[in-house]
Amino acid sequence: MALLVLWRALYGGFAVGCAATFPSLALGSSRTWHQRQQRAYCASDEVQKAQQAAAKGAPPTIFSRILDRTLPADIIYEDDKCLAFRDVAPQAPVHFLVIPKIRIPRISQVTAGDEKLLGHLLVTASHLAQKEGLADGYRMVINDGQQGAQSVYHLHVHVIGGRQMGWPPG
Questions:
Q1: Cα 50 from Cα 153, distance rounded (Å)
Q2: Which residue numbers are catalytic?
Q3: pTM of the predicted model, to two decimals?
Q4: Where are the domains of the chain?
Q5: What integer is the mean pLDDT of 21-31?
Q6: I want to staple 161 with a disulfide (CB 3.0 to 4.6 A). Which of 8, 115, 126, 138 is the partner?
Q7: pLDDT one-digit tens code per residue, 146-155
Q8: Nearest CA to 143 among 91, 77, 101, 94?
Q9: Chain-centroid distance, C-alpha 7
Q10: What is the rounded distance in angstroms from the CA atom of residue 131 to the CA atom of residue 85?
């Protein structure tokens, strides 16, 4: 019983949010903790989007449309190598993306020739984080593939901050 109370204290909000999508996650379910945790990883919208994107392969992405200006975005920075814009579904008070202008579908598909570009993305993200007032810290995230919850197959760096981040992520 004490373990259940501790679990509710630590994961209660998470379980409640997932229980609507997966009733078997509701506290008191006959499923084991491990089964509930496995199902919990599938509960978020981003995970579902990642599964759908992985099934479709790598066609032109929403970021392609932002780069060619056929889709509007709140652009905060641009140079000859990258573009940065605010996330349309922010996960924190500050949440923006930095994308390369050339399409690399996944971080796991980079080559040694991409080294300078990757460094440029991270340096740009760092400078923009400072400009956005994130002097107390922030998180950079690069999702890769279906299990990494990548929902857009164009390499992108999320910069998330303006609140205390939790650990472990994901």
A1: 9
A2: 156
A3: 0.69
A4: 2-43, 57-161
A5: 37
A6: 138
A7: 999 999 999 9
A8: 91
A9: 25
A10: 13
Least Cα distance to 25 among 41, 6, 48 occurs for 41
- Cα–Cα distance, 126 to 52 (Å, whole number): 31
Q: Domain 57-161, what architecture?
A: 2-Layer Sandwich (3.30)
Spatial CA neighbour of 106 closest among 64, 62, 54:
54
What does DSSP say about strands 82-86 and 157-161: parallel, antiparallel, or unpaired? unpaired
Helix axes 33-40, 2-19, angle to 10 degrees: 30
pLDDT tens for 91-149 read 999 999 999 999 999 999 999 999 999 999 999 999 999 999 999 999 999 999 999 99
pLDDT given for residue 83 in this prediction: 98
Cβ partners under 8 Å of residue 75, min gap 6: 83, 84, 85
Between vectors from CA 146 to CA 61 and to CA 53, what angle results, nearest 5°? 30
Q: What's the whole-number average pLDDT of the chain? A: 78
% helix, strand, coil for the chain, step of 5: 40, 15, 45
